[in-house]
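Example 318, ligand dinuclear copper ion.
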Amino acid sequence: MMDPTKPSIMLPPQASTQAAGYDFLFYSLTALVVVCFIAIMGAGLYFVWKYRYRGGEHQAVEITHNTALEVAWSVIPLFVLLGLFAWGFKDYISMLVAPKDAIEIRVIGKKWKWSFEYDNGATSADEMAVPLNKPVKLLITSTDVLHSFFIPNFRTKMDAVPRRYTSLWFQATQKGEHQVFCAEYCGDDHSAMLARVKVLDEAEYAEWVKSHAEVGKTPVERGQKLFQVKGGCVACHVTKQDQPKTIGPNLFGVFGKAEKFADGSGLQIDENYLRESIEYPQKKIVAGYESASPMNTYKGQFSDAEIGDLIAYLKSLK
Ligand code: CUA
């Protein structure tokens, strides 16, 4: 007997309460398709053989119609398809409507990172902890373009849409780590837009959420957290001396630096420049980054206080 908690030839392991039901629908559809394929191809081949040319001359017989056959091949598929629709719709609704007692986690997609927020203020990037055997509802959005949050082992996938919330829920049945993919092509690093779901015992989960809730007390600590998690700036900027730069400039020692821009102008970097670069990143592009993948505006995503914290953090990078 196949162990559904292990990957099969066709599908990854089943690690949520809903997975088995979806797989049953998937295998049923596949079986139906295989049966229809064999029946149609078989009939075709049979007639090719039965009416093969065997010499001599033949007069074609004119056939106009066969009412009984035509009704049968229209009505039977109609009911089969309606049944499949009802079955799929029922499973789809069961994925959308979360149980009332589900834990809610906010998921934010952003080129090219997933971040997570918990009710107690805990935040995390790239890794989402959830408790074992407890319903979890995800409230999903995007800060830029369309993404899609996909956990194959749970058989759940939902679009992350800018300026709108979508949701799904699941109940994990297997401890350990499960891969998350972005399933909507969203730009250069779409394929690297990955995360992990960590399924933990209830006690481990409580500990994890508590340990991720420590809010930095100084502006620099708060700014660092904004930089890493909410802004996801780490996706494109490194912050340590000698670290190879990624998509955007290395921000080590950025404050007070004399910078040259693509349009030939120059400036000593101050708070006003940093703020402008967060809100209007295309205004003054550092020379050499003209053809780099452009930074999105963060205007409206940070409060003034948060921008202040971010600038404090950037100034501390020295
Ligand atoms: Cu985000 Cu693909």
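Summary: The chain is about 35% helix and 20% strand.
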